[in-house]
């Protein structure tokens, strides 16, 4: 089975809305700094083969600097991300890319630990 594909997204009034294309109900997880975020909801978009998803962005994660929310499948495949930069923004800032790489590395480390733990027990 193929992974879901995030096809469009927008942030409005603290809600991140995005569309996911997949054949079955998407099993998605939203995370920030490797921790799951509550409130992710996906509803079918009748007749289109896609799902309308929304995530309220928790105020508690918003602080000075760059914050990245990552959407991934239950298997750990990243399908999209939202980077929020607050405070003094720099032109041509690559911090968003570095933060995304760190988030994906955290997911890989967690998957590796889980796999290693299941093989040793």
Chain-wise SSE layout:
Layout: E1 5-12, E2 15-21, E3 28-32, E4 35-36, E5 41-45, E6 50-56, E7 65-73, E8 78-86, H1 95-120
Antiparallel strand pairs: 1-2, 2-6, 3-4, 3-7, 5-6, 7-8
What does this structure look like?
With 121 residues, this protein is α+β, with helices and mostly antiparallel strands. The protein has a single domain, classed as Immunoglobulin-like. It contains one helix and eight strands. A four-stranded antiparallel beta sheet has the order 1-2-6-5, with no helix packed on it. The chain has a four-stranded antiparallel beta sheet with strand order 4-3-7-8, with helices on one face. The two termini are 29 Å apart. The model has no long low-confidence stretch (mean pLDDT 89).
Basic shape: flat
Number of helices: 1
User: What series of H and E elements makes up the topology?
Assistant: EEEEEEEEH
Residue stretches low in confidence (pLDDT < 50, at least 5 long) are none
Give the number of DSSP strands.
8
Q: In CATH terms, what is the architecture?
A: Sandwich
| Residues in helix, % | 10-25%
Provide the β-strand percentage band. Answer: 35-45%
Features:
Immunoglobulin-like; 4-stranded antiparallel β-sheet; single chain; flat; 121 residues; alpha+beta
